[in-house]
UniProtKB/TrEMBL annotation:
PROSITE patterns: MFS. It is found in: Cell membrane. The keyword Cytoplasm does not apply. The keyword Membrane applies. Keywords: Membrane, Transmembrane, Transmembrane helix. One of its GO terms (cellular component) is plasma membrane. It is a multi-pass membrane protein. The chain crosses the membrane at residues 30-54, 66-85, 97-117, 123-148, 155-178, 190-211, 223-242, 248-269, 297-319, 325-345, 357-376, 388-412, 433-450, 483-506. This is MFS transporter. PANTHER family: ACTINORHODIN TRANSPORTER-RELATED, MAJOR FACILITATOR SUPERFAMILY MULTIDRUG TRANSPORTER MFSC. GO terms for molecular function: transmembrane transporter activity.
């Protein structure tokens, strides 16, 4: 299946015998896949659309810094944890109705988010929304394999990769437009509520257009493993998000230690299930392949770098520099354009360069983010503007487009063909967990350096100095002085993640089959 740096496995048929599902013509297959991609677009748009609304949400419902991080991380964590069990349920009961159920939960939770009256309620609603997204998303990949012949899957998954990258990159722009058009109080609620009409239409189309194809597998769900994994990751995320806000008391370190213990227990439980012949949530045999282990870490680290930059830029531009949500969203337009260009050419480059497309992608992301960091380090806060970040974010966006579409294909190619489905599920989960951890770590660093607790005293001191004509001018200067160094430090961490990602790409095979998803 691949030209690996290790010895070649015995030759085998690259794809099993495939026949089209009953009544599914190529035209209907693409129509059904388009409906599935509507759901994918909505769920991934919601990973970044909220970023530009965070300062507005903070003021509207009196949310603290930890709440802002939970709004992003809680969604990503729930999304990631739902992926593997949802895929198993789809194999057993049919992916159509699992997709329908998850999309219904996601749409209802979007309404709940839009109506939330307090921080805790919004966090819970976001977790439920992420759970719904994680339930329906595996069906997109599953139908990509069920609806299309192997030689057509490359095109299908190329389109899917473009949708993933573009939806994530467009989130801040769409969010900024909604807040600008509808105002702060109504606009942030419509960032969630906009999913409702789209979701209702998608549900109707899903019921009528998507065929009822059943994989026919009787897969176990491994609830104990899921609970151990969820508890372990939550125990790690809670102190990472809450620790800075609460001054790192003893319980935060105990929680971190407890999270490690739970994750070790999860690994032993999965190994025990595998020895008994029971299908575990994460098959340990996958990690017998060093290349897969490296690829898994790559997925974790890259998504930690990629998702967190929108969080940092949104808070810097609005809370630190006093720009509007739309102006904050417009900053990311070069990234979105670059992402579209990169995603559109990634499949062709992967055929020519093999693993080189991932190396090029991560290198461009690292260079682009390093350039953003350099701008923040050297340019005074009063002189910062969109134009200074245009070229760096365009470069980073192109690199992201090169990476997003083909990365899972190269990672999954490191395992045996019979494990490709399980490997795909693990990679999807790790990507979302990486997003959650990235936001948790970067937000902790950002707010630690910003030291917002001293802002009030600093504004008062600035006014007493006589250097400012009004309290607003003093406040703007002080906030910039707090947020610019904080954002610079946080972006340095994202650059480090991107550089590590570049190094980890070398663990992957040089070339893989480019016909599409794993068989």
């Amino acid at each position: 299946m691949s030209d690996s740096t290790t010895a070649e496995p015995p030759a085998r048929t690259p794809y099993p015998t495939w026949t089209a599902p009953p009544g599914v013509t190529p035209r209907r297959a693409w129509a059904a896949f388009a409906v599935l991609l509507i759901g994918a677009f909505m769920s991934l748009l919601d990973t970044t659309i909220v970023n530009v609304a965070l300062p507005t949400i903070r003021d509207a419902i009196d949310a603290d810094e930890a709440t802002l991080a939970w709004i992003i991380s809680g969604y990503a964590l729930a999304f990631g944890l739902a992926l593997i069990p949802a895929g198993r349920l789809g194999d057993r009961f049919g992916h159509k109705w699992v997709f329908f159920t998850g999309l219904a939960i996601f749409t209802a939770a979007s309404l709940w988010c839009g109506l939330a009256q307090g921080p805790v309620e919004l966090i819970i609603a976001r977790v439920v929304q992420g759970l719904g997204g994680g339930i329906f998303f595996p069906a997109v990949t599953a139908f990509g394999q069920l609806l299309f012949a192997p030689q057509k899957r490359g095109a299908a998954f190329g389109v899917m990769g473009a949708v993933i990258g573009v939806s994530t990159a467009l989130g801040p722009i769409v969010g900024g437009l909604l807040i600008e058009a509808l105002g702060d109080e109504t606009g942030w609620r419509w960032i969630f509520a906009v999913n409702i009409p789209i979701g209702v239409v998608a549900l109707v189309l899903a019921a009528t257009v998507i065929p009822a194809v059943k994989a026919g597998q009787k897969a176990a769900t491994d609830l104990v493993g899921l609970l151990l994994l969820a508890a372990g990751l939550t125990a790690l995320l809670v102190p990472l998000i809450q620790g800075q806000d609460e001054g790192w008391p003893l319980w935060t370190f105990l929680s971190l230690a407890g999270g490690v213990v739970l994750l070790v227990a999860f690994w032993f439980w999965e190994s025990a299930l595998a020895r008994r012949g029971v299908v575990p949530l994460v098959p340990p045999r996958l990690f017998a392949h060093p290349q897969f282990t490296g690829g898994t870490v790559l997925a974790l680290v890259y998504f930690a770098a990629f998702t967190s930059i929108f969080f940092v830029i949104a808070l810097l531009w609005q809370a630190g520099l006093g720009h509007t949500a739309l102006e904050s969203g417009l900053v990311t337009i070069p990234f979105a354009i670059g992402n579209i260009v990169g995603a559109a050419t990634s499949d062709r480059l992967a055929q020519r360069l093999g693993r080189g497309v991932l190396l090029l992608g991560t290198a461009l992301v690292a260079v682009g983010l390093a350039a953003v960091w350099l701008v923040l380090e050297l340019v005074p806060a009063a002189d910062l503007n969109n134009w200074l970040l245009l070229a760096p974010l365009l470069v980073a966006g192109i690199g992201n487009g090169f990476f997003i579409a083909p990365n899972a294909r190269f990672i999954v190619a490191t395992v045996d063909g019979k494990d490709a489905g399980a490997a795909s599920g693990v990679i999807g989960t790790v990507q979302r967990i990486g997003s959650a951890i990235g936001i948790a770590v970067v937000s902790s660093v950002l707010f630690a350096v910003a030291d917002l607790g001293s802002v009030g005293d600093d504004i008062q001191a600035a006014m007493q100095s006589g250097d400012f004509s009004s309290p607003d001018a003093a406040a703007a200067s002080v906030l910039a002085d707090h947020f610019v160094p904080a954002a610079t430090t946080a972006l340095a961490l994202s650059v480090a993640f991107a550089v590590i990602s570049f190094a980890l790409v070398w663990t992957l095979p040089k070339r893989v089959s480019l016909h599409g998803a794993p068989d």
